[in-house]
Each structure stands twice: as structure tokens, then as C-alpha cells.
Amino acid sequence: MEPLLVFPDPVPPELAQSLDLAGYPWKAVADEAGLVAAEPEDGWSGAIVVAAHDLDGAFAVCRALRKRDLPLEPLLLLISGAQVADLELRDDLFDDFCLYPFQPREFEARMKHLFWRTGRGTRPELIEYGDLRLNLETYQAAIAGKPLDLTYMEYELLKFLASHPGKVFTRETLLSRVWGYEYYGGARTVDVHVRRLRAKLGEEHANLIQTVRSVGYRFGQSRWGL
Amino acid sequence: MEPLLVFPDPVPPELAQSLDLAGYPWKAVADEAGLVAAEPEDGWSGAIVVAAHDLDGAFAVCRALRKRDLPLEPLLLLISGAQVADLELRDDLFDDFCLYPFQPREFEARMKHLFWRTGRGTRPELIEYGDLRLNLETYQAAIAGKPLDLTYMEYELLKFLASHPGKVFTRETLLSRVWGYEYYGGARTVDVHVRRLRAKLGEEHANLIQTVRSVGYRFGQSRWGL
DNA sequence: GCGAGTGTGAACGCTATGTGAACCGCTTCG
DNA sequence: CGAAGCGGTTCACATAGCGTTCACACTCGC
Predict the structure, then answer these.
(1) Strands (DSSP E) along B171-215, which ranges?
(2) A109 and B87: CB-CB below 8 Å?
(3) pLDDT by residue (tens digit) across B32-48?
(4) I want to staple B5 with a disulfide (CB 3.0 to 4.6 A). Which of B40, B44, B162, B222 is the partner?
């Protein structure tokens, strides 16, 4: 596991202790300049920024971390109770915060939840939508409990569509995202795969993949929430 | 704003007070059966589940909320310090947690951050004007909650008009901006599409698109009032 | 009341999509 | 080594949905 970035340097001893006890590798950074200098080859796996002693410096570090091409996640902010009000309008600078000084149990639970949450974004192991279920680990699909016998491309296409329910994708987008970025091929290929998917989904569920004329295809119903 | 779901019923008084002070509308629910019974027409805007007094009941509610077609978000869990360990392996049941009893400032900050996060992460790009709502991601439109079945050109035209409310466009402008810059066609095409749009909007909302004689069309009310 | 501008219904023709089948490369098995 | 099977791609054709156009009725302003 890549190390966590921790600000400031030196790190408060109780934080260092909690991190070590929980088994997180970490590296302290004193200021913005250190972000680049101390960065491991494979990047940071997350960041913990202690704002309790230096609010402005902490926010500066957060900003620097979030401005990168790939904003660093997750980012946990440790602040004193009196600083809670300063979070206002700075929601974009952190993923979660924890009152400082902290209870080790709460700190550890927040770390776990944060990693779980951001990890889920990159590697979900199960996709479910209505009766449909895709097991990404075993490459199996099932609808209403009945297993679907999908080919590789069919599975990949369905996986991509089902992981963005409601959103419409053009054939070109699907070709580049599902087939590959430099794919040379006719857009009708998508049609054929959609047709086979619909056939395998069965008459009852064929409408899971909807045609949006002149645009492309959409999986499932739109989300009108919020 | 739609109300928050709060479990259990009765709600602890300090929680009720904090919610009221922060201006969140809310509705208490006593058990899983109440989730459906008490649900507002437009759904919940989020949930707060107090686990401090009834851990199992709280998790049951969380599970029920997350199993729905559209898992309810955001979901804030309130737990006692002794229960933190019980969060283990239940990361999927909540979005954030707060130690209970809580400091109102921390509670409020978590609520704000949660709403900011879910709003930003999952909110589709929308165009809204009065009862009209256009979802740009899903190519769907709805008026007063009822979905509109629009064709591609109708959708594009409405999208363009609705994104410049109050402004008058000539047919030529519309042809070049909606149809395309090199479009060579009769101006009456616009009329026909406007007519169909009005018909689909329904008698009640047909006046959303107004005719400005000798000039063109305008969406919504003029900025000078009417 | 006249004319320009706009609403309306219907008809036409095009284009995007559905559909069946052929093709082609790859793997498997005899 | 060749045949067969499988899966992905492409092609040709059918078709319905949709955009455009036109003719005519109507309305508004002068």
C-alpha cells in the first residue's frame, strides 16, 4: 500500500501512534513544496491534514492537493471544535473531517469508511439494478435470479451501461469507452450488440436498454431525484 | 426542499432542535413499515438514523433504505462512542456518521458537507424553469413531474429556448443555433416544431413558448413582466 | 378589410434503427 | 493439420419514426 500524506511535519505523536497502530504507512510533509518532493513513485494513497494548529497552512495544502490533475482522495481533515465554522464554503477541500483531539476509535472508523468509499468508486465488485445483477469478480450476470450467458463484449457493454444508469451514451462514446479508445469500426457494431443483449435479457427486460433516437442508448430509467 | 427521514420516532429532542435550527424539514419514522407509509410524493431528500438507542433497528432501517431502486442518499448515522466498532463491515449502510450525543456545530457541518457531496457527485445536469425540467444527461424532459416524450429536434429546440429564458429568437437564429450553422431550410420548420412542443407541453403550459409577432419566439416570461 | 405573419393538418421523403445473415479470425478438438 | 464451433464485425435490407414541406385557415395590426 502506498503511504498516506500527513501534514504537518512533525506529526502530532498521538496521530502517528494511531496510524501506526492501524497499520497505515505514512509520510510527513511540512509544506506545499514538500508535496512534490516527498511524493512516492506511485503517488499517495490519501492524505490526512491536521488543521488544529495551523488552519491557513492546512487549507493551502488541501487546495494544492485538490488542484492536481488527479485530485488526491481521500482527504481527511483534523480540526478543533472551534474551527468547525471555518469549514463553511470549503466543502471541496476535504472528504471527511474529524474533531481534534480525536478518539482513536472514531479516527480509525473514519479512515476505514473513507477508504471503503473511495475504493468503491474505482472497483465495485457487484453491480445491481432492479432484477439485474452483475458479478464483476466472476464475470457472471443474472436477471431475476436466472443466469445470463453473455459473451465478453456483451458483458462489458452491459457493465458499462449498467454502471451509469439513466445516462445516454452515443455509439461513438460506447465504442471508445467499451471497445477501446482507438477503435476503428462501424457504429452499427453497437446496435448489434445491443440487439443481442436485449434478446438475452428476455422480452420482459429488453426495455432496460432504451434507444434514444439520434443520440444513442440509455440503460434503465432516469433519476429524477434532486 | 423535501423532508429528511429521521429514525426513530419519537426523535431525540436535541436532534429535532438542531434540525429545526438549521432549517431542515424532517419527518420521523418509527420502523421499516413507516418508510413507505410516510414517504413524501417527491421522496426523501436524505436520512438521519439514530443508532445510539437501538443499533439493530437502526441498521435494519439503513438496509431497507439502501435496497431501494434508488438508494437513499445521503444517510447520516448517529452512534454512541461505544458503538463505533459495530460500523465494521457495514460501510455500505451509511455515508457519514457522527458521535452521539453530538455537538450541534459538528452535526450541522456534517449535514452541510453531506449534502454538498451528494449533490455534486450525483446531481445530473439540469435545466429547470418553473414546472419544466430538462435532464441533459438522460435526454429526458418532464413538466410538473410528468415525463414528456419529445423527439430529438423538439428536445434540442426546447433545450435551447429554456436555457435562455425571456430572450426572443428569430426563426433564422433558431435555425442556425439549433439546427446548425449551414442549415438551409424553410423558416416554417421552426413554427411546426414550436407547435408540436406546445401541444406536448399541454394546454396549461403551452404559453411557456410565446410568439412575438414579426420577430420570433420567446421562452418563459419577458423580463419586464407581463 | 387588407396583407403580412402565424397556426394547423396532412403528406412526403429521408434517415436512424431493427433485423437476419454472411464473413472472418481465433480457439478447440479430433 | 484440418474441421468445427464460437464470437465479433460487417453488410444488406426492411421499416417506422421523424423532420420537412406545403396548402390553407386564421389572427393581428394598420
Answers:
(1) 209-212
(2) yes
(3) 888 888 988 888 999 99
(4) B44
